[in-house]
Amino acid sequence: MKLRDLAAQLACRLEGDGDIDIIRVAGIQQAQPGDVTFLANSKYEPELARTRASAVILREGSIAAPCAMLRTTDPYLAFARAVGIFAPAWRPAAGVHPKADVSSDAHLDPSVSIGAFVSVGDGVVIGKRTVVFPNVTIGAGVQIGADCVIHSNVSLRERVVIGDRVILQNGVVIGSDGYGFVRRGDGTHEKIPQVAGVVIEDDVELGANTTVDRPAVGETRIRCGTKIDNLVQIAHGVTVGRNVLLAAQVGIAGSTEIEDDVVFGGQVGVSGHLTIGRGSLAVAKSGITNSMEPGAMVGGYPAIDLKTWRKSSVLVKRLPELRLRVNELEARLAELVSEAGSSKDTSR
Amino acid sequence: MKLRDLAAQLACRLEGDGDIDIIRVAGIQQAQPGDVTFLANSKYEPELARTRASAVILREGSIAAPCAMLRTTDPYLAFARAVGIFAPAWRPAAGVHPKADVSSDAHLDPSVSIGAFVSVGDGVVIGKRTVVFPNVTIGAGVQIGADCVIHSNVSLRERVVIGDRVILQNGVVIGSDGYGFVRRGDGTHEKIPQVAGVVIEDDVELGANTTVDRPAVGETRIRCGTKIDNLVQIAHGVTVGRNVLLAAQVGIAGSTEIEDDVVFGGQVGVSGHLTIGRGSLAVAKSGITNSMEPGAMVGGYPAIDLKTWRKSSVLVKRLPELRLRVNELEARLAELVSEAGSSKDTSR
Amino acid sequence: MKLRDLAAQLACRLEGDGDIDIIRVAGIQQAQPGDVTFLANSKYEPELARTRASAVILREGSIAAPCAMLRTTDPYLAFARAVGIFAPAWRPAAGVHPKADVSSDAHLDPSVSIGAFVSVGDGVVIGKRTVVFPNVTIGAGVQIGADCVIHSNVSLRERVVIGDRVILQNGVVIGSDGYGFVRRGDGTHEKIPQVAGVVIEDDVELGANTTVDRPAVGETRIRCGTKIDNLVQIAHGVTVGRNVLLAAQVGIAGSTEIEDDVVFGGQVGVSGHLTIGRGSLAVAKSGITNSMEPGAMVGGYPAIDLKTWRKSSVLVKRLPELRLRVNELEARLAELVSEAGSSKDTSR
């Protein structure tokens, strides 16, 4: 593709030779002649001078590259779209694979693609153009919207509801039984039947091997536009709001409500029955034990205000020094007291 | 169902109109007319006055609700049983699905249900009424007891032994190779063949995508009545006692023994070769690096006595203040020393 | 097997009766007559006197056992090999199971074994003697080398490349979409198509339910000889060097480079875009927020030098005491100042 045409498609302003042929999108360090690359993170600015790329997507008004430039107000977004332009547009053909097992009572749009060894239960409904890869199990009564992509080895348990344009990476489990038990007098535990529903709204993406449990009563719900990374645990009765970002290995305990636009780093843990206010943020590995106000930013465990945590966690490593200073203070004070005593004696 | 009949089935004392029709169990905030709800956690007491439920399950002697009441000494247990009464009693029909693959050398009770795309290896034995959902793989020589439920996409590796009434949520892996390697002189690692057994005793439940490894020698064992949440790692050679509760994303390193009645919060990690004493407890995210006495309660990393940890972790966030106080002490002491010096001078 | 023959096969020096029949390898505590056991960890030395084993593998020059001994410079390695000698040498027969689904366009060596319900996509290449267990999904264009073992319920996404002698435990996902999104002006997120490759080099082992994401551009790569435990997250664009060891539930964020010979304990988390220097080490639960020098050893979160962290973390639990000492210093200093004042007064 001519750089000129790429610029037009990405709505970027071209600086340089529009006749260059672009064949690929690449990272700034790996880029070769024929590649377009991008600079969105200032950390990589020093790489710009030595890039071998034929063209760079750059922020309007930022530094110049030693090659052709595509200028835009949002270089990361332009990069994302450039990747899409060059990506192989591949999708399996519509239809049910002869080695799938689809209930005669299921309702699949003819445009749906069902792979080998997919089991589709009674009463399942699947919307237009949704693709289901091999070895997926879809339980009885599940509803799936249009334009979803369900990768291999996903399990959707009975009566789970999935919106439109949902992407489920491989190994995702939705609707497994919540971890709900009552302790009996003899120390054994009685299972609380986990029979209520799970709803995954439109435009949600769940990462590989992530698990979303169903509750005994009420529902577990993940709202529109939320993106969740791999190996995340969403417990029974949790509500996750719109456009939330949860990085890998996060765990949310039962009945907690995550409001819209929340961002959690990796390995964050949240206790049950809390409310995490809109637009709040927790850095990686935070352990959140109390509800958070909208817009709050926290770190550490138990999680506290992020600025306080940053200061405190620096001081933790200086604790040996602080202890030495206290030791010395005690020694000098004792000395002073003893001197003061003798000084008083002499002054008498 | 009439409230009167529900009260009888739950062995609760009825206060109010026994003729009310109950159609569902619901959480206190979501309940509608026709629903029975419950109050077990005092945190939700303020909700009681405004519930729209037709009836509430309540502790004997506790506050009153503005609707009919079912009084009991254990409202959470009564709630659990009420959920079971209203839950859809659904199970797949007995028999082997024509699209399953069962070795001619396997021994399945005729009451067993085997779903589509289930692979059952040579010498496998499965007891009465056990249900195996689609896309499960059961390796050669596996033994499974009666009344188990094995959800889709579970992997049971060769020779694993499963007791009665075991529930395996979707994606569980049992009997994968333990992480056992010997470093060679050249820095590469030689695999120690992991060929010994795994035993899951009666009434155990394992959460979605939880993994239980097999060891090289000895065995990995999870004893009766233990309930384990999602995404938990049980390493090779670990023993987990009876009626243990491990919340989501816990990791237990190799050869550690967890005794009976232990409770771990989410994301706890335990080092290898330790003994975690009976009835001990670790709060979420604890990192346990030493064996624990029976009944011990710990928190933090490295995990310490829970009360000490609670006090210390509060002080961590006050470290900037503590440092300022030490700075000031040093300044004032220096001043005092200098004053004392001049005072001594003047007194001479 | 005669102990004499075992000694020869393990290249150990025999002390005692070479005519003893050995039937099994066992742990030192579980060993019975007829078993050979080993002592590699000095922690278990007290068990040696009371072992019931018929023979023990021991370090040259270390203490003696009350039974026959196999002396060697590396008892753990000899143990590993002994396990292999007694392990059942079991592998499925070569050939494609009639209930598998293999694209007519795939190239499988005749010695390959493909289990039931395995889906093999277009253009897949699989090398000699590789074994694929049931319910595995292998996407279009995947390349797999020789002598690999791919356990049940693994997902290999399109175009993933796997070397020789790679072992993938059950439920592993390779090539799932990286967690890459661009925030739009309205707070929603646009997916960056994750279409680049993943390469798993020779002799790598990945633990059960571990996930390895693909990036938008560049590649994700795990180099030769690296061994990764269960439930580990390797994000998009990460490079993991040779002979690296990552314990269970570790998470590596996007674009980070882990150099050769690095060792991470369980539940370690690493931020994105870092370089973790060759031969460095992080103890369990470390949270690494900065690049690490070769050979560095760290602990804690944010991770700091291991020795400093060990000292500091001990002091954290003594913070209540430290605060009391500061309280007392302040009180005594105030008293001293007041005394000094009155002393000065009286001296006037």
Approximate strand percentage of chain A: 25-35%
Mean pLDDT of chain A: 94
State the domain count of chain A: 3
Task: State the fourth-level CATH superfamily of the largest domain in chain A.
Answer: Hexapeptide repeat proteins
Fill in the CATH topology of the largest domain in chain A. Answer: UDP N-Acetylglucosamine Acyltransferase, domain 1
Shape type of chain A: flat
Instruction: Identify the most extensive interface between protein chains.
Output: A-B, 75 and 70 residues
Strand order of the largest sheet of chain A: 6-9-12-15-18-23-26-29-32-35-37-38
Helix content of chain A: 10-25%
Give the biggest sheet of chain A. 12 strands, mixed
Oligomer: homotrimer
Report the strand count of chain A.
38
What would CATH call the architecture of the largest domain in chain A? 3 Solenoid
**Would you identify the regions of chain A where 5 or more consecutive residues have pLDDT less than 50?**
none
The separation of the N and C termini of chain A measures: 99 Å
The helix count of chain A comes to 5
Secondary-structure-based class of chain A equals: alpha/beta
Keywords:
homotrimer, 348 residues, alpha/beta, Udp-n-acetylmuramoylalanyl-d-glutamate--2,6- Diaminopimelate Ligase, Chain: A, domain 1, UDP N-Acetylglucosamine Acyltransferase, domain 1, 3 domains, 12-stranded mixed beta sheet, 10-stranded parallel beta sheet, 38 strands, 28% strand
